[in-house]
């Protein structure tokens, strides 16, 4: 892995046990924790946001999707930027950008301003999400890198577990604005810690051009499809739905052509020549669409239909994150012994059962007997398939492209959630301010639960058909490596992996 002048790479990197090593880890955990915290609390705040800002459901959809749109479109580009201009510098830019956009979110006086600020926040997230892992991978000595990545992932998991509880407390206490404003002091702490972090870059990557047209076309495709789906569930005219749909699909077609011809594509299409890689990403789309859909609807159902406050709604889903934190490593070990096929079939089916149990989450439901069993079963299912899914993605490509393949898979998960948030209310007939009506919300939630369970089941079928026993075990034996981000409790996407010699792209 290359490095720029003045870095510590020539000397072998930083020792994890050293004072500087602890500063590097603190910096990376705080930076990734900012983005992770934001991803876990905004859904809980949606009913409060809608009431305070007088926002329709379509506006609330955009509060979620404006962030996801820019994050998804720029995630691969953000990782590449760190390789070129320096990972430390990129992280600093991302932290400052994310904090400034978070402050704008916290100060927003109307839904339109909040949506615009969320889009800006997603740009910062695209720098933070791959940047924090790349910094860990590039800063430590080779012998310490595996333990450092594991520590980063585990501590990030703790931040993810605290997120729903902290977010609910902030929403009910100081107010929803503080779920964004809290990022400002966190960013200040990162900027203090980053002074102790060595700079590193990939000199070979620095000579390669950015795929700016690809990133722009990807953003136009996602924006067009999102506008069409959200507009169709609102009060948009036929032209207001068809025009963005046509423009978005056209941008998607041109994106494929550009990526096929450009010299250094953001998304090398030859990766999809691997049937296993393609199948794994289809599974990812199904799994994370199901996760994104049910976790978009459940906090609203709990608050609108069951009368929970934000703290109760946030805490209600905490078992999902805790189970993933505790069990993901064991699930990864199980997949290495048995192969990924069994957990990739069983995990989604267990998760589907958990979602179907949420049909009991209706007026009069009790947390212990109705809500808790559903979220526990869902969490168990997710814990089973997250690590094996990552192993399958890495097994489908050469080791030198593992970081890029992981980035593509992570982006696919975020795109799936963006599209399901845009399309699910349309599919279940929820629009306008109906999310505030307990009867309308309850009926739509039941339909959404059935649809999300079907997506989980579809992923299980794809795993049974396309994932062959022993494939990942043979790959790891040949390459002498295994996934390093084994402790994962981020529910919004699979863990990023450092990858091969060049590290995270």
Automatic annotation (TrEMBL):
<feature type="transmembrane region" description="Helical">
    <location>
        <begin position="90"/>
        <end position="109"/>
    </location>
</feature>
<dbReference type="InterPro" id="IPR011701">
    <property type="entry name" value="MFS"/>
</dbReference>
<feature type="domain" description="Major facilitator superfamily (MFS) profile">
    <location>
        <begin position="24"/>
        <end position="471"/>
    </location>
</feature>
<keyword id="KW-0472">Membrane</keyword>
<keyword id="KW-0813">Transport</keyword>
<keyword id="KW-0812">Transmembrane</keyword>
<dbReference type="InterPro" id="IPR004638">
    <property type="entry name" value="EmrB-like"/>
</dbReference>
<keyword id="KW-1003">Cell membrane</keyword>
<keyword id="KW-1133">Transmembrane helix</keyword>
<feature type="transmembrane region" description="Helical">
    <location>
        <begin position="236"/>
        <end position="258"/>
    </location>
</feature>
<feature type="transmembrane region" description="Helical">
    <location>
        <begin position="279"/>
        <end position="298"/>
    </location>
</feature>
<feature type="transmembrane region" description="Helical">
    <location>
        <begin position="371"/>
        <end position="394"/>
    </location>
</feature>
<feature type="transmembrane region" description="Helical">
    <location>
        <begin position="115"/>
        <end position="136"/>
    </location>
</feature>
<feature type="transmembrane region" description="Helical">
    <location>
        <begin position="342"/>
        <end position="359"/>
    </location>
</feature>
<feature type="transmembrane region" description="Helical">
    <location>
        <begin position="210"/>
        <end position="230"/>
    </location>
</feature>
<protein>
    <submittedName>
        <fullName>MFS transporter</fullName>
    </submittedName>
</protein>
<feature type="transmembrane region" description="Helical">
    <location>
        <begin position="415"/>
        <end position="436"/>
    </location>
</feature>
<feature type="transmembrane region" description="Helical">
    <location>
        <begin position="177"/>
        <end position="198"/>
    </location>
</feature>
<dbReference type="InterPro" id="IPR020846">
    <property type="entry name" value="MFS_dom"/>
</dbReference>
<dbReference type="Pfam" id="PF07690">
    <property type="entry name" value="MFS_1"/>
</dbReference>
<dbReference type="GO" id="GO:0005886">
    <property type="term" value="C:plasma membrane"/>
</dbReference>
<dbReference type="GO" id="GO:0046677">
    <property type="term" value="P:response to antibiotic"/>
</dbReference>
<feature type="transmembrane region" description="Helical">
    <location>
        <begin position="23"/>
        <end position="46"/>
    </location>
</feature>
<feature type="transmembrane region" description="Helical">
    <location>
        <begin position="310"/>
        <end position="330"/>
    </location>
</feature>
<dbReference type="GO" id="GO:0022857">
    <property type="term" value="F:transmembrane transporter activity"/>
</dbReference>
<dbReference type="InterPro" id="IPR036259">
    <property type="entry name" value="MFS_trans_sf"/>
</dbReference>
<feature type="transmembrane region" description="Helical">
    <location>
        <begin position="58"/>
        <end position="78"/>
    </location>
</feature>
<feature type="transmembrane region" description="Helical">
    <location>
        <begin position="148"/>
        <end position="171"/>
    </location>
</feature>
<feature type="transmembrane region" description="Helical">
    <location>
        <begin position="448"/>
        <end position="467"/>
    </location>
</feature>
<keyword id="KW-0046">Antibiotic resistance</keyword>
């Amino acid at each position: 892995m290359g490095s720029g002048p003045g870095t510590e790479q020539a000397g072998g990197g930083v020792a994890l046990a050293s004072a500087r090593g602890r500063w590097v880890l603190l910096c990376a955990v705080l930076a990734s924790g900012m983005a992770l915290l934001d991803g876990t609390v905004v859904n809980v705040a949606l009913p409060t946001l809608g009431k305070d800002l007088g926002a329709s459901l379509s506006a609330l959809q955009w509060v979620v999707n404006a962030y996801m749109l820019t994050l998804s479109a720029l995630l691969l580009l953000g990782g590449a930027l760190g390789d070129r201009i320096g990972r430390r510098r990129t992280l600093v830019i991302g932290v400052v950008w994310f904090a400034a956009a978070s402050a704008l979110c916290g100060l927003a006086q109307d839904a339109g301003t909040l949506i615009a600020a969320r889009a800006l926040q997603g740009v910062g997230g695209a720098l933070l999400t791959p940047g924090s892992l790349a910094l860990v991978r590039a800063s430590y000595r080779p012998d310490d890198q595996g333990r450092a990545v594991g520590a980063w992932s585990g501590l990030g998991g703790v931040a993810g577990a605290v997120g729903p509880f902290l977010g609910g407390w902030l929403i009910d206490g100081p107010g929803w604005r503080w779920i964004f404003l809290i990022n400002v002091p966190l960013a200040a702490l990162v900027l203090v810690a980053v002074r102790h972090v060595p700079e590193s870059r990939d000199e070979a990557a620095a000579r390669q051009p950015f795929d700016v047209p690809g990133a722009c076309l990807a953003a136009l495709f996602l924006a067009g499809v999102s506008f069409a789906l959200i507009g169709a569930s609102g009060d948009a005219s036929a032209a207001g739905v068809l025009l963005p749909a046509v423009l978005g699909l056209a941008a998607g077609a041109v994106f494929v052509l550009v990526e096929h011809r450009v010299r250094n594509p953001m998304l090398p299409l030859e990766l999809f020549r691997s049937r296993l890689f393609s199948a794994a990403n289809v599974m990812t789309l199904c799994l994370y669409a199901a996760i994104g859909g049910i976790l978009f609807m459940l906090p609203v159902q709990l608050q609108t239909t069951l009368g929970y406050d934000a703290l109760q709604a946030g805490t209600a889903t905490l078992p999902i994150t805790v189970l993933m934190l505790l069990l993901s490593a064991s699930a990864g070990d199980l997949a290495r012994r048995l192969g990924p096929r069994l957990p990739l079939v069983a995990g989604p089916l267990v998760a589907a059962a958990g979602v179907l149990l949420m049909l009991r989450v209706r007026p009069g439901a009790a947390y212990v007997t109705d809500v808790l069993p559903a979220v526990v079963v869902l969490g168990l299912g997710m814990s089973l398939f997250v690590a094996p899914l990552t192993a399958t993605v890495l097994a489908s490509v050469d080791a030198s492209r593992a970081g890029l393949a992981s980035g593509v898979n992570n982006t696919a998960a975020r795109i799936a959630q963006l599209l399901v948030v845009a399309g699910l209310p349309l599919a279940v007939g929820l629009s306008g301010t109906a999310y505030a009506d307990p009867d309308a919300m309850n009926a739509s939630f039941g339909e959404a639960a059935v649809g999300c369970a079907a997506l989980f089941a579809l992923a299980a079928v794809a795993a049974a058909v396309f994932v062959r026993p022993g494939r990942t075990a043979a790959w790891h034996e040949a390459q002498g490596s295994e996934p390093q981000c084994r402790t994962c409790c981020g529910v919004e996407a699979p863990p990023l992996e450092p990858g091969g010699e060049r590290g995270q792209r």
